[in-house]
């Protein structure tokens, strides 16, 4: 029978976590970005490492310390994140996509600094690839966990993403709520499973939420093996 040391429930598993926001250059000095700091993803990576997993953290720019023993891959743009994720995906057992990936990028990246002129400035954006959607299409043995950042209709929007992206779980947070979402130490989430179950958690540390997400994943791993 399999034996796992106490507290090392993820020994032998490779966990891929994405964190932080991507940044999309406009010219050599400017970029489009978002408010993600990486806290949620770094907390998940730390929890997974603590449970004995091999952890790869693919991160947009973040000032946070890399948890001990976690392999970090630093990226800037959504397309770089996609390349890094697709490289690690085939050998991953669990994928948790906490990153705030930019949906759009400037269509033209100026080689030189853009000089100001009188009047308005129009910026044309084009779509970035949806990394998580692609993973949902490619999914084989992997357990796939997505996030949904919403400011309204949290439950409906989150469930739609769960289905469309072929996920096992989605972690939904209302980023307009106080002490939850971007840049905070805490978060308030609802987790939806593909079988329709839902768990509504109170405000707690991102580290505790990371642990809860992994508990759900471990529960599913157990169901998959029996
Ligand atoms: N995601 C991704 N690639 C993108 C956009 C999002 O992999 N280009 C992932 C995020 O990492 C997250 C999930 O998809 O796990 C949901 O992201 P979110 O921004 O909430 O949803 P979108 O599908 O982008 O839809 P919208 O922003 O329009 O609500
Ligand atoms: Ca988005």
Automatic annotation (TrEMBL):
Amino-acid positions noted as binding CTP in the UniProt annotation, renumbered to this chain: 103, 113, 129-132, 147, 161, 165
Ranges where the DNA/pantothenate metabolism flavoprotein C-terminal domain occurs: 10-219
GO molecular function annotation: FMN binding; metal ion binding; phosphopantothenate--cysteine ligase activity; phosphopantothenoylcysteine decarboxylase activity
Coiled-coil region: none
Cofactor: FMN; Mg(2+)
E.C. number(s) listed in UniProt: 4.1.1.36, 6.3.2.5
Catalytic activity: (R)-4'-phosphopantothenate + L-cysteine + CTP = N-[(R)-4-phosphopantothenoyl]-L-cysteine + CMP + diphosphate + H(+); N-[(R)-4-phosphopantothenoyl]-L-cysteine + H(+) = (R)-4'-phosphopantetheine + CO2
GO cellular component: phosphopantothenoylcysteine decarboxylase complex
Record GO biological process: coenzyme A biosynthetic process; pantothenate catabolic process
Keywords attached to this entry: Decarboxylase, Flavoprotein, FMN, Ligase, Lyase, Magnesium, Metal-binding, Multifunctional enzyme
Manner of cofactor binding, per the entry note: Binds 1 FMN per subunit.
Pathway membership: Cofactor biosynthesis; coenzyme A biosynthesis; CoA from (R)-pantothenate: step 3/5; Cofactor biosynthesis; coenzyme A biosynthesis; CoA from (R)-pantothenate: step 2/5
Region (Phosphopantothenate--cysteine ligase), start-end ranges: 15-226
Function as written in the Swiss-Prot or TrEMBL entry: Catalyzes two sequential steps in the biosynthesis of coenzyme A. In the first step cysteine is conjugated to 4'-phosphopantothenate to form 4-phosphopantothenoylcysteine. In the second step the latter compound is decarboxylated to form 4'-phosphopantotheine. Catalyzes two steps in the biosynthesis of coenzyme A. In the first step cysteine is conjugated to 4'-phosphopantothenate to form 4-phosphopantothenoylcysteine, in the latter compound is decarboxylated to form 4'-phosphopantotheine.
Family that this chain belongs to: In the C-terminal section; belongs to the PPC synthetase family.
Protein name: Coenzyme A biosynthesis bifunctional protein CoaBC
Species, as recorded: Mitsuokella jalaludinii
Residues included from the entire protein: 183 to 408 of 409
């Amino acid at each position: 029978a399999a034996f796992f040391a106490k507290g090392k429930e993820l020994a032998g598993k490779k966990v891929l976590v994405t964190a932080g926001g991507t940044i999309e250059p406009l010219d050599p000095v400017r970029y489009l970005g978002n408010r993600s700091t990486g806290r949620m993803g770094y907390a998940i990576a730390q929890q997974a490492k603590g449970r004995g997993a091999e952890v790869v953290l693919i991160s947009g720019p973040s000032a946070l310390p890399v948890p001990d023993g976690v392999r970090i891959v630093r990226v800037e743009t959504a397309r770089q994140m996609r390349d890094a994720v697709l490289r690690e995906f085939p050998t991953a057992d669990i994928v948790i996509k906490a990153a705030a990936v930019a949906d759009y990028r400037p269509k033209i990246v100026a080689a030189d600094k853009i000089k100001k002129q009188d009047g308005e400035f129009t910026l044309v954006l084009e779509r970035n690839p949806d990394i998580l959607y692609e993973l949902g299409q490619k999914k084989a043995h992997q357990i796939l966990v997505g996030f949904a950042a919403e400011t309204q209709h949290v439950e409906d929007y989150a469930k739609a993403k769960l289905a469309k992206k072929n996920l096992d779980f989605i972690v939904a947070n209302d980023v307009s709520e106080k002490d939850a979402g971007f840049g905070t130490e805490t978060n308030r989430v609802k987790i939806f499973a593909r079988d329709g179950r839902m768990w509504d958690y109170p405000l707690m540390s991102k580290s505790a939420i990371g642990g809860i997400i992994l508990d759900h994943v471990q529960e599913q791993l157990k169901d998959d093996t029996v």
